[in-house]
Amino acid sequence: MRRPFESAQYACSDYVERLQAVGILPCMSSAGCPYVNAMAESFMKTLKVEEVHASNYNNLEYAGSAICTFIETVYNRQRLHSALAYRSPDEFEACSLGTTQNANSVDQLNCHQLT
């Protein structure tokens, strides 16, 4: 399913029913409120700048595989996120759960900064 280009398409009852049939709840912000979609837009910018525009893909299958690899190995494990106190999601989760096995000693000392 593709993302609709116009807000009228997004609010269309047929589209909303298709989303709800597979357990997806559509979310539209009110006019003039750009914050609802900010995290998704930030992710898409990062994906495009750090992976898509920096790569040449031979075919759609290779592109899909490379993008999934980027998300799993770089974005979710290595890249620092400002919303997580400039930690990777793995480091943030380890600190939040109190398991610093994968973090180095400097990270172990700084876990308290997250709370």
Beta-strand segment tally: 0
Q: Strand pairing plus helix content: what structural class?
A: mainly alpha
Helix content: 40-55%
What is the alpha-carbon Rg in Å? 18 Å
Structural shape: extended
The main β sheet shows up as: none
Order of helices and strands: HHHHHH
Percent strand equals under 5%
Overall mean pLDDT: 77
From the N-terminal CA to the C-terminal CA, the straight-line distance is 39 Å
Runs in which pLDDT lies below 50 for 5 or more consecutive residues are 102-115
How many helices?
6
Notes on the structure:
With 115 residues, this protein is mostly helical. It contains 6 helices and no strands. It has helices at 7-11, 13-21, 38-52, 60-75, 89-97, 105-110. The radius of gyration is 18 Å and the shape is extended. Mean pLDDT is 77; it is low at 102-115.
Key descriptive features of the protein:
115 residues; extended
Outline of the structure:
52% of the residues lie in helices and 0% in strands.
Note the topology:
Layout: H1 7-11, H2 13-21, H3 38-52, H4 60-75, H5 89-97, H6 105-110
